[in-house]
Amino acid sequence: EPIVNDIKTFFFSKDGESVYIGTGRGGLFRYDRNSGQTVQCAPDCPQKRISDIIPYKDNRMWITMNDGIYLYNPSRDRFTEVTGNSLLNSLPAGLIDEGDGHFRVAQFDTGLYGFSLSTNGDGIPEISECRICIEKTGIVSFKEYDGLTIIAMADGLYSYDGEALRKMTDRLSSEYVRSFEKDAAGHIWAGTDFGLDGRLRARCAALR
Asked: Does residue 150 sit in helix, strand or coil?
């Protein structure tokens, strides 16, 4: 059984029976909660750094790897690379599916992009249009809460309302924000290089 370490992200399958685990060096793994066994997904494919796993229809998943965006089909145990724009093929830091074929992706080296996907004649997803939303380096991860995008960066935690990028606070244990979550009360908690910082601002709505 493979040894799984350097975990970057994980995702529960729709039926709750499997946990898909994205790692920093070993690629994608699936943990079976019934049998307790772990297997490597698509072991014949080059194993790369995975930064995000996003659910898609028919139990498929969008996977962001260090060299681009892929669609993973568990029933076939196969990755299909999204093609069409070289800007999105370098260090993607996360992906949001906005529905109806529209997506946003963060790139550590260049910024935040919005793009649309279509399917070519061979059934391969490809990018049909791409636009820059935020031109800034150092994006580590991002999430959307109630229409507001929260972005973890190498120099702090920011909010983005579709027009302006605003720094949320200057009082963090470290400027390098690795991850963050919103609690039940609407407070943002940030994990930095030096610790866990809680209740950074009152509510997401207050940031607008």
From this structure: strand
Separation CA 24–CA 42 (nearest Å) = 16
What is the C-alpha to C-alpha distance for residues 97 and 48, in angstroms, rounded to an integer? 22
Structure tokens at 166: 């605003």
Q: State the Cα–Cα distance between residues 123 and 54, nearest whole angstrom.
A: 20
Q: Which of 178, 125, 186, 189 is nearest to 152 (CA)?
A: 178
The candidate with the shortest Cα–Cα distance to 116, out of 84, 163, 91, is 84
Confidence of residue 88 (pLDDT cuts 50, 70, 90): low
The pLDDT assigned to 86 comes to 65
Backbone angles phi, psi at 88, to 5 degrees: -95, 10
Does 30 have pLDDT greater than 70?
A: yes
Overall pTM surpassing 0.90 (yes/no):
no
CB contact set of 9 (below 8 Å; sequence gap of 6+): 21, 22, 50, 51, 52, 53
Nearest CA-CA partner of 103 in 67, 142, 75: 142
Of all residues in the chain, what percent carry a pLDDT higher than 70?
91
Determine the distance from the C-alpha atom of residue 126 to the mean position of all C-alpha atoms in its chain, rounded to a whole number: 18
Q: Per-residue pLDDT tens for 103-124? A: 998 888 889 999 888 877 777 7
Q: What is the pLDDT of residues 188-197, one digit of tens each?
A: 888 898 888 8
The two three-digit tokens of residue 83, written as one number: 């093609």
Query: Counting beta carbons within 10 angstroms of the beta carbon of residue 1, is it exposed (0 to 12), middle (13 to 18) or buried (19 or more)?
Result: exposed
